[in-house]
Specification:
Layout lengths: L2 H14 L2 H8 L3 H15 L4 E3 L4 E3 L1 H28 L4 E7 L1 H18 L3 E7 L13 E7 L9 E14 L1 H7 L13 E4 L8 E5 L11 E4 L5 E3 L2 H9 L4 E5 H10 L3 E2 L4 E2 L2 E8 L7 H14 L6 H6 L16 H4 L2
Parallel strand pairs: 3-4, 3-5, 7-10, 7-11
Antiparallel strand pairs: 1-2, 5-14, 6-11, 6-12, 6-14, 8-9, 8-13
């Protein structure tokens, strides 16, 4: 007796409530379906179904057995899907959800490399303003940016990609004109460009410490700023900073290129403001297509997959021992990280 086939037949008969319907669904003859059910009951030495000319009804033992059978079949299908996905070439549409700044400043510039590796994968990207706090059921991967001390909540799977620090910076021309602050208290004398976002305070709370410390020691100070510009559109703040309007605090993943090219200069390098974790989130690990696995592996390879800021490292700004001018002034070894 093929026990696995008999279990599939039993589950399908109960699902459809009909021997004939199960036979059609499984492409078997009614006689074979009847025999497989009889063989299963004989093997177990119990009656699973009470059958009459009009209806089928589970026995008490049949109900308990059906629950276990469904679990076994589900796990078997998942194992087969994982095995197939691991050998199948990535192809098809990959549905993604990201916050606008990450999509514009990181995803777009790395996408050509992913496409070169996997030319049969097409991208359907949704860029959503506002906080993304959970994996979207309609997407293969959602990128979540969350405060490092704010745990993720929800029934989904998430993989850490990187940490991003909020860096205070301005153009060298602005700082030449207005002066380079040596202490956070001096920021009240400057033009501030302030984000207005959920979970991001309007006040800037600085802590003194090296960039590698989880909990920096030393002084702490909170600065209340009357912004020259306050907006919920982060790229407008970025553009205003590039135009020399004032001092801004933005995530390092937005500033990497500007710091490396010297068009923006880091301010107060010995003080920390805040940081965030970046995750790739999926609704479930079950039946992950090859294209999703390939993209997740690409993200981890690109951004590191650890609790570290790769963009500060690339710009030569990771440690508090470096000078305020990052990128163009950084050691060559750090410029090529």
């Amino acid at each position: 007796m093929d026990r696995l086939q008999s279990m599939r037949v039993f589950a399908k008969v109960v699902e459809l409530g009909s021997l004939a319907g199960a036979a059609r669904e499984l492409d078997l003859s009614p006689a074979v379906v009847t025999r497989l059910l009889a063989d299963l009951e004989a093997h177990l030495n119990v009656r699973l179904l009470n059958r009459t000319t009009r209806r089928l009804a589970l026995t008490e033992v049949g109900e308990a057995y059906l629950e276990r059978v469904r679990q076994i079949l589900s796990e078997l299908d998942e194992a087969e899907a994982l095995a197939v996905a691991s050998t199948r070439e990535p192809r098809g549409e990959l549905r993604l959800l990201m916050p606008p700044p990450f999509a514009a400043h990181q995803f777009a510039k790395h996408l050509p490399k992913f496409r070169a590796r996997h030319p049969k994968v097409t991208i359907d990207l949704e860029v959503r303003s506002g906080a993304i706090e959970t994996a979207d059921e309609g997407c293969d991967v959602s990128v979540i940016i969350s405060g490092r001390h704010r745990p993720l909540r929800g029934d989904f799977v998430a993989r850490l990609l990187a940490r991003t620090e909020v860096i205070v910076c301005a153009t060298p021309e602005y700082l030449d004109r207005r002066g380079r602050p040596q202490h956070p208290s001096e920021l009240v004398e400057h033009e501030a460009l302030v984000p207005v976002l959920p979970h991001v305070p309007r006040e800037w709370a600085f802590q003194h410490g090296a960039w590698g410390d989880d909990e920096p020691g030393g002084d702490a100070i909170t600065i209340s700023l009357q912004g020259a510009l306050a907006t919920n559109h982060i790229d407008t703040l970025f553009a205003a900073a590039l135009a020399g309007m004032g001092i801004v605090g933005l995530p390092s993943f937005m500033l990497e290129d500007a710091l490396m090219e010297g068009v923006l200069e880091r301010v107060l390098p010995h003080w920390r403001l805040m940081d965030f974790h970046i995750y790739a989130a999926m609704p479930s690990r079950k039946y992950m297509p090859a294209r999703t696995r390939a993209f997740l592996d690409f993200l981890v390879e690109t951004f590191g997959g650890v609790d570290r800021d790769p963009w500060l490292a690339a710009a030569g700004c990771e440690t508090s021992g470096e000078a305020g001018r990052c990128g163009a002034q950084a050691p060559a070894a750090l410029q090529n990280v």
